[in-house]
Amino acid sequence: MREEGLAPARPVPVRGAPGTPVKTAAAARAHARAVVDARWNRSARPACEQDVIDLLLVVSELVANALRHGGGLAGFEMTPVRDGVRLAVRDHSDAVPAAVGGPGSGPAGHRVGGYGWPLVVRLARDIAIEKRSGGGKTISVFVPIRTTDRPA
């Protein structure tokens, strides 16, 4: 984790609802689906549906965690790239998620939190947590999206 100041978060409008910011996990999932549909043409170059489901799970968990544990959603950004989607979720809390299965984790069979963060760790890549200079944090991840014409 590195600490650096980030510009204030700007909500990303949900396609089909101009000017409506992403404020819920459902709106974030709808936006994610719209981004995938716009980037990966369903007839010529469709996205692997399993990867899209993984993306929707990661989006949902990160936004839900910001709402439940992070003092609210301060920003949501998605950027499609060649092999997937980069996602950044900002919240108002300085608390970072507990390590999953690493040093300092609880004893076997003991769960401190829920399933959300371990799910994000399992499905996403390039996970970064950056504290914001004015408080809060940004969790950034990359979720790979394959096309169905590529081998799984």
Automatic annotation (TrEMBL):
<keyword id="KW-0067">ATP-binding</keyword>
<keyword id="KW-0808">Transferase</keyword>
<dbReference type="InterPro" id="IPR003594">
    <property type="entry name" value="HATPase_dom"/>
</dbReference>
<dbReference type="InterPro" id="IPR050267">
    <property type="entry name" value="Anti-sigma-factor_SerPK"/>
</dbReference>
<dbReference type="Pfam" id="PF13581">
    <property type="entry name" value="HATPase_c_2"/>
</dbReference>
<keyword id="KW-0723">Serine/threonine-protein kinase</keyword>
<keyword id="KW-0547">Nucleotide-binding</keyword>
<dbReference type="InterPro" id="IPR036890">
    <property type="entry name" value="HATPase_C_sf"/>
</dbReference>
<dbReference type="GO" id="GO:0005524">
    <property type="term" value="F:ATP binding"/>
</dbReference>
<keyword id="KW-0418">Kinase</keyword>
<feature type="domain" description="Histidine kinase/HSP90-like ATPase">
    <location>
        <begin position="32"/>
        <end position="140"/>
    </location>
</feature>
<protein>
    <submittedName>
        <fullName>ATP-binding protein</fullName>
    </submittedName>
</protein>
<dbReference type="GO" id="GO:0004674">
    <property type="term" value="F:protein serine/threonine kinase activity"/>
</dbReference>
